[in-house]
Design brief:
Elements (H helix, E strand, L loop, with lengths): L6 E7 L3 E8 L10 E4 L6 H15 L5 E5 L3 E2 L2 E2 L14 H9 L3 E5 H12 L8 E7 L3 E7 L2 E3 L8 E2 L2 E2 L1 H4 L1 H7 L3 H19 L3 E5 L19 E3 L6 H8 L9
Parallel strand pairs: 1-4, 4-7, 8-13, 13-14
Antiparallel strand pairs: 1-2, 2-3, 5-6, 8-9, 9-10, 11-12
Length: about 250
C-alpha cells in the first residue's frame, strides 16, 4: 500500500506475541486490523525477523517502521534480554530487521514505546515535569520523561528491592504465579512505587500493561504522594508508540 502522510507502522514485540498495525499518527488510533503472531520459541533473532517480515507483508506496508523490543536498545543494538532469548545480546536489530524487510526499521525499548504513546495521546498529554510510565505485565517496564522528552532504556523493573529484582515480586505475572488477590498484590506495587518515588521524585505515575485493564481493582488500595493515572492507550500503546519512532526523533543512549 502507499503510505498515507499521517500514518505510521508499529510492531510491539512481547514475550508471548508480536503485534502490529498501521497507526494514525494524528490520533494514535489504529488505522488497520491489529495482527498478532505468537513469538517464536526459542525467541531467536532470525526466527523473530521472519515474523516481523510477515507482519509487514500482511499489512502491505511499504514505508519506514518502528519496533518496540523487550530489552535495552542503544543505537539499534540489543544490550539486554531478560525476558527474551539471550542470543539477542549484541545483535544490531535495526540492521537485521531492515535487511529482512527491505524497509527502514528503527528499534526502541518496548516500555519506552508505550510511554511515547501515552505522552503524545494519552494520560501524559500536556504534562510537564518528570513523568514515569510503568507497565505491569510479564515484567515491569518503564518509560521516563522529563518535560515530554524521553530518557531511554531506564528498565526500572530490574531495580533491586528487598534483595531481589523488583519485577519478580511486583509484576502482574507475580500476582498470578503466587495466587494472591488484588489487594495483596497492590501492597507489593505500593512498596515498589514508593522506592521509585524516592529515587526520582516524579510529578506523575502512569500505570499501564495488562494490569491497567483492571485498575479499579487495585489502584484505590495504593497510597503514595505522587499522583497516579491509569494508562489511556490500553493494549495499543506499544504499537502506536513504536510507529512514532524515527531515528532522528527518539534519543538512543
Amino acid at each position: 500500500m502507499n503510505r498515507p502522510a499521517h500514518h505510521g507502522f508499529g510492531i510491539d514485540i512481547g514475550g508471548s506475541g508480536m503485534k502490529a498495525a498501521i497507526v494514525d499518527l494524528d490520533t494514535g488510533e489504529l488505522a488497520s486490523e491489529r495482527i498478532r503472531i505468537p513469538t517464536p520459541r526459542p525467541a531467536a533473532p532470525d526466527a523473530m525477523a521472519e515474523v516481523v517480515r510477515e507482519l509487514v507483508h500482511r499489512h502491505g506496508w511499504s514505508g519506514p517502521l518502528g519496533v518496540g523490543f523487550p530489552g535495552i536498545v542503544r543505537h539499534g543494538v540489543v544490550h539486554s534480554a531478560a525476558n527474551i532469548d539471550e542470543s539477542w545480546l549484541g545483535v544490531d536489530a535495526d540492521a537485521l530487521f531492515t535487511e529482512v524487510c527491505g524497509l527502514d526499521v528503527a528499534m526502541v525499548n518496548d516500555a519506552d514505546a508505550a510511554g511515547l504513546a501515552e505522552m503524545r495521546w494519552g494520560a501524559g498529554r500536556g504534562v510537564g515535569g518528570v513523568v514515569l510510565v510503568l507497565t505491569f505485565g510479564t515484567g515491569i517496564g518503564s518509560g521516563l520523561f522529563v518535560d515530554g522528552t524521553l530518557v531511554p532504556n531506564t528498565e526500572l523493573g530490574h531495580l533491586e528491592l528487598d534483595g531481589r529484582n523488583a519485577e519478580t515480586h511486583a509484576a502482574a505475572s507475580a500476582r498470578e504465579r503466587d495466587g494472591i488477590g488484588w489487594k495483596q498484590w497492590a501492597s507489593r506495587v505500593e512498596r515498589y512505587l514508593r522506592h521509585v518515588e524516592m529515587l526520582f521524585s516524579p510529578d506523575l505515575f502512569i500505570v499501564g500493561g495488562g494490569a491497567s485493564k483492571k485498575a479499579d481493582r487495585w489502584l484505590p488500595s495504593i497510597s503514595i504522594s505522587t499522583p497516579i493515572e491509569p494508562a489511556a492507550m490500553a493494549n495499543n500503546a506499544g504499537i502506536a508508540g513504536a510507529a512514532l519512532v524515527e531515528r532522528r526523533h527518539v534519543p538512543q543512549r
